[in-house]
Automatic annotation (TrEMBL), chain B:
Organism: Parathalassolituus penaei
InterPro entries in alphabetical order: ABC_transp_permease (IPR001851)
Main location: membrane
Cellular component aspect of the GO annotation: plasma membrane
Localization terms from the record: Cell inner membrane
Membrane topology: Multi-pass membrane protein
A family per Pfam: BPD_transp_2
Transmembrane segments: 12-30, 42-59, 91-113, 133-159, 190-209, 215-234, 241-261, 267-285
Protein name per its UniProtKB record: ABC transporter permease
GO MF terms, alphabetically ordered: transmembrane transporter activity
CDD domains: TM_PBP1_transp_TpRbsC_like
Keywords on record: Cell membrane, Membrane, Transmembrane, Transmembrane helix
Amino acid sequence: MKRRQFHKLLAGVVAGAMLGLSVPAVHAEEPLKVGFVYVGPIGDHGWSYQHDQGRLSAEAHFGDKIKTTYVENVAEGADAERVIRNLAKAGNDIIFTTSFGFMNPTVKVAKQFPNVKFEHATGYKLSDNLGTYVSKTYEGRYVAGYVASQMTKTNKIGYIASFPIPEVIRDINTVQLALAKYNPNAELKIVWVNTWFDPGKEADAANAMMDQGVDVILQHTDSPAAMQAAERRGAFAVGQASDMTHFGPKAHLLSVVDEWGPHYINRIQAVMDGSWKSSAMVEGMKEGAIVIPGFNESIPADVTAKAKELIAGIKDGSVYPFTGPLKDNKGEMKVPEGTKLTFADLEKMDWYVEGIKAEIPK
Amino acid sequence: MDIDLITNILYAMVRTGTPLLIVALGELICEKSGVLNLGQEGMMLMGAVVGFIVTLSTGSLTLGFLAAILAGILMSLIFGVITMELSANQVATGLALTIFGTGLSAFIGTNYVGKPITGLEPIDIPVLTDLPIIGRMLFGQDLLVYLSLALFGGVYWFINHSRPGLILKAVGENPHSANAIGLPVFKVRYLAILFGGAMAGLAGSYLSLAYTPLWMENMSAGRGWIALALVVFASWKAERVLLGAWLFGLASILHLVFQGMGFSVSPNLLATLPYLATIAVLVILSSNQNSRLVAPISLGKPFYAKT
């Protein structure tokens, strides 16, 4: 008897926990069904949040013509395969899987459901019904690096880094290239926190750097804690993934925001038209996938103007940070004069550019 | 390394160690009574979200902290009823409590993500704050840090020098004998569980109202688990819990400071430093003891009053 009561209670407890994971449904007649798989909670105010904003803007765009379903907090690994297969079984016409670790599960399920379209963010495996998409975050970081180079008084810029993967190393390099070009006296300090999301640790990292004289902080982690820490101590910071203005109205210089809406709208439209084809899509400022929503009023007008010029240059292709000659930080010539790194090169980047006084963690 | 930097490191060490200290003190009392509650993480998150919501809507930090404590108590009451009245497995119930707390806090906090509040500010105690090196560490902190020290003092005294503390230990070592001599085993265990919940709730609100004044899903990021491990490695001694919590804080900060200073040590290695250092020191301390088991003997075993 006691045991049965306990089971009931436990069931209640588990059901309560599931409340946080409920799946929304939109009713319509014969709509196109679209599925999304997120690695984090949509409340992370970063990566998964932005993908969900993209989903919402697709919903707003198509109205009753589509029906979207999302599953959040999906662990990378075996469970992902089950989630993706369930979405495919449920009759979704296109499924977006939005984290690198979903690559192999997506490939597997795509093979089993040839009539369903799949798109995997940040991956590199393609098949007839599986495409990839990724955004050029470094474009935004170049602009952020320029603004940081102009706003620092101590000539020390801090960078909170997550894991030493090519994407992160590439973005650190972009910032260093901007510093070298616009303020060669500025030094970049890099602190690895070994996590994408730990507000306490990110704040600690920001404070530790400010203790050492850093007065502008950039981050490649997902919480706004560093922004807050900078606000408390009168330093500047650059927001990541979503607009972080309200976490530090004075500290916030700008945010580099991933805007997935246009991509989702395009691709869903392509499925409706029957024109969808598998491809590896790389999108940046030009396509509206990377945006900088606004600049802090405390930034001098000429700096803001120059930053906007850079954005325009990036859009028309005249500004490209990874243009030779580029040396690595040991003095070896990596990119000779007159050549440019391709996006494929950037996806394998495992070296620091000249001027970074640190080693990439092994 | 100049003096300012050392001062700042020690200051940050205490701040980082404080949430761990508060949770671990609560869990210490709870385990001393023979109850193992693995729900710390869930209770912390509930404390964090409830404290944040109350402070945001009332504008009062005090009410926020009190509400967080209450939330922690209610969470631990669920645990208490299930493990004590229904004699359920404590480990399974504790894990369920963590899953429940993580999910429920995310659910009720959805609309509060990213809302700004003014967090608890540090209070500088005049003159003493200006002491070199330890001034800021001990006298330039916020109220909750001072409170955590008082709590430590209270728990230390309670366990080692008070009669109720003796009763608590008796219940944790051998509840049947304790019951036989007329000690209220159920009442003692309930109170210990509720104290553990109150501390976890308070620690959670320290995160969301003082440390990083914001609410984010899962913002405790594993601190509840670290606190649980701390209690074990501190071999259930209050003074070692304090030592362990601060040591963990120190190593976490050093790992970040060294990188900023350009030391060419692998950050991955540095990241494991807090765990390694804390475990190493506490294990060395415990190895000097006589071979008697240091854990409360009835830890984790349900107690049936009438058998």
